[in-house]
Amino acid sequence: MQALAARVRMWLPDWRITGTTLALPGALEAAVARQPQALIYPFFMAEGFFTRRQLPKRLAGAGMAGPRQLPAFGHHPALPALLAQVVAAQPGTVLLAAHGSQVSRASATQTEALAETLRAATGRQILTGYVEEAPFLQEVARLDGPAFCLPLFATRAGHVAQDVPEALESAGFQGTLLPAIGEHPEAARLIAEALRAA
């Protein structure tokens, strides 16, 4: 997250931008103490449990009154155009790998909306597969012919580093596995645009 913050600062050199995580105990609270009036940009792919419940609760607990929390990265209005750009550079069937959830529809709803937008924009075959709900990635990834997998994840964490490759391997997927969309060089620019607009 600190590396991402540094890339965003390249687009907003006069801003004070830091990255933090909910996963490391005390990290969010320490960041809030340093920047109590900060804009909060959730680097998540969907507006779900973490952005609607966990993050606001943690921010309030850290003493941030009325946090100015922006929509999650996965809802950035320019994200579909970035996805279309990535898709256009690769041949074959597009397999979007996403988190999914047995509890919340937020991840799947946003993934399906992005997939539909991509179909309309590119005319390509766009499939979706999930790590934690049906249709599971290892089932959808049983494909013939050219294909590539684009992970709709913010970072290369556990799911992208382990679960997605394992699911593709178990399916016998012969295509290319791309980096998570949140790792694309343009992601920092999109975040900077959202911050500037806010």
Characterization of this structure:
The chain is α/β, with parallel strands linked by helices. The protein contains eight helices and six strands, in the order H-H-E-H-E-H-E-H-E-H-E-H-E-H. It has helices spanning 2-11, 27-34, 49-61, 79-88, 106-122, 137-140, 158-171, 187-197, and strands at 39-40, 68-69, 93-98, 126-130, 147-151, 176-177. Strands 4-3-5-6 form a four-stranded parallel sheet, sandwiched between helices. The chain has a two-stranded parallel ribbon with strand order 1-2. Helix 3 links the parallel strand 1 and strand 2.
Large-scale geometry: globular
Number of strands: 6
| Amino-to-carboxy terminus distance | 20 Å
CATH architecture of the largest domain: 3-Layer(aba) Sandwich
Number of domains: 2
Structural class: alpha/beta
Write down the CATH topology of the largest domain.
Rossmann fold
Low-confidence stretches: none
Average pLDDT for all residues: 92
What is the N-to-C order of secondary-structure elements (H for helix, E for strand)?
Answer: HHEHEHEHEHEHEH
CATH class wording of the largest domain: Alpha Beta
Going across the biggest sheet, name each strand in turn: 4-3-5-6
Total helical elements: 8
- DSSP strand (E) fraction? 5-15%
Radius of gyration: 17 Å
Question: Helix fraction?
Answer: 40-55%
Major sheet: 4 strands, parallel
